[in-house]
Specification:
It is a single chain. With 337 residues, the chain is of the alpha+beta class. The chain has 10 helices and 22 strands. β15 and β16 (238-239) form a beta hairpin. The termini are far apart. 40% of the residues are buried.
Length: 337
Amino acid sequence: MYKKWFILSLVVILGSFLFAPLPSEAKEKSEKETAYVDVSVATLWSEPDITRPIDAPSVGNPVDMWQWTESMSLDQKLWLVGNLQTQALYGQKVTILEERGNWVKVAVHGQPTPKSELGYPAWMPKIQLADESNFAKLKENKSFAQVKDTTAWLYDDKQQKVEFKEISFNTKLPVIAQAGDMTLVATPSDDMKWISSEAVTVYDSQQEIPDPTGQDLVETGKQFLGLPYLWAGVSGFGFDCSGFTHTIYKANGITIPRDSSVQATHGTPVAKEELQKGDLLFFAYNEGEGSVHHVGMYIGDGQMIHSPNTESTVEIIDVFESDYYSSEFSGARRYID
């Protein structure tokens, strides 16, 4: 009897070792945890640990977005295509889906996609997240300051002598106090910081953001003219085509899908001869009959503003006078009344 019990116990113990997950394996979270982006812009990757040495400024905490984007050659930027998925802004909420070493797979809230009902899923360094419960409460209950400049600085002091962090357009942080030309905001893990009141708009709630007109959307987009393209970009440091349109609408209180192919299936279809400012224009392979590969925004008078490709910057073109875009036009969608 004792011998049988001993053998059975040995089998159970050995089995627990043999079938235990290795530390390097991705572990799916049994209970989904939420956290907040703790860097000015978090870049999300298709897989963990695929970054190159030149990507170092984008994967630490803090990050230096300008150093990263301006140091890459064209070929190095082209390598990002397919290796990046999206980005998330300072203070943005994510749900942690998996962990693998120093990396986590997260779903970015507020970026609708068929890939996950929680938000856009991809990998990022764990060091770029904070899980401060106090910040979470402030995000839920406080008015917020939304950055309206392309980028803006947070400061340690009200006198703007000590720079803390350069943050992006459309970043939203809880407001603690307003003092004349400066606004005090909460941050995910570094207490309170100051920002110029001229760089932000303060809202009591998301619902308080006024419904935009087409011209409002056009003016929002025009402030980024000349900004270099960045694959997967959703910030004032660089946009891809759908990150540009997604962010323009998001900053004006309207959440649309993250990717162009999905943006092209939502909203209201619009005929070419009925286009209005703010409508999204879509372009597809096979002379407009294949899969959607690009999106821009109509600004009136036959013109479109868009973030075209890695070799270019945000620009305005006469869209239907271009042989390329005219031949690949596949339709338009409207997201405002």
